Amino acid sequence: xxxxxxxxxxxxxxxxxxxxxxxxxxxxxxxxxxxxxxxxxxxxxxxxxxxxxxxxxxxxxxxxxxxxxxxxxxxxxxxxxxxxxxxxxxxxxxxxxxxxxxxxxxxxxxxxxxxxxxxxxxxxxxxxxxxxxxxxxxxxxxxxxxxxxxxxxxxxxxxxxxxxxxxxxxxxxxxxxxxxxxxxxxxxxxxxxxxxxxxxxxxxxxxxxxxxxxxxxxxxxxxxxxxxxxxxxxxxxxxxxxxxxxxxxxxxxxxxxxxxxxxxxxxxxxxxxx
Length: 274
Ligand SMILES: C[S@@+](CC[C@H](N)C(=O)[O-])C[C@H]1O[C@@H](n2cnc3c(N)ncnc32)[C@H](O)[C@@H]1O
Fold this sequence. Notes:
GO terms for molecular function: methyltransferase activity. It contains nine helices and nine strands.
């Protein structure tokens, strides 16, 4: 059983927005590599506040359509408000472990969702019937294995360690990015491909400290209740500045989690053969 541990308070919605800005270009590259393009009808599972759906909408263009699905009403409400005016995007509330696919799609996509699922293959199998034969399943998620600082900075390592332990305690898998191809093979997809993108942020960039302090803030209550750390030790209000100072002093590059993608086709005729 997995519990989605990041919540949807104001700070978490801001964190999602900042995270999305950082990974927007890698996401575009990975979606394009997977074969997302003009005219496609796409279902975005675990769409959050709509950032992944907006990139998909840009790629499918006005002749395509994107439907975003999320089980958190606050996410859906925020996504609808943010995308008001975008004619080719809509949002639906529903749980990906049971909500129906509602029609046929050229692609079923998710970004930063499967990490949190107890059985990602079961969820993708559930939506396979909503993908047309020859259509795509595209999954983007993190592999935190290489995340940290170069050279190593103890505070950065400690915080990434706490984040990984807290996610694991909720049944999530922070290194799932490295297993996406295996999951797609298990689902029965064909023509499986994969690509991953890592970024290196310079010592004076505020982006890394913002990213790490933000995710620690969203998980802090759970970290403390698990007994991994005390609130005083975490001191979330000063964490961003302490991380930034430690990286600057060490002249260290911040290495965020790798954004990995895998894609594959539902067995059946490819479009030009139909
Ligand atoms: C980390 S956010 C990613 C949001 C967005 N895809 C992005 O890349 O910015 C994960 C989202 O998955 C949603 N989620 C988690 N478990 C879910 C489930 N069982 N059914 C539907 N949505 C779920 C959460 O509510 C959250 O909005």
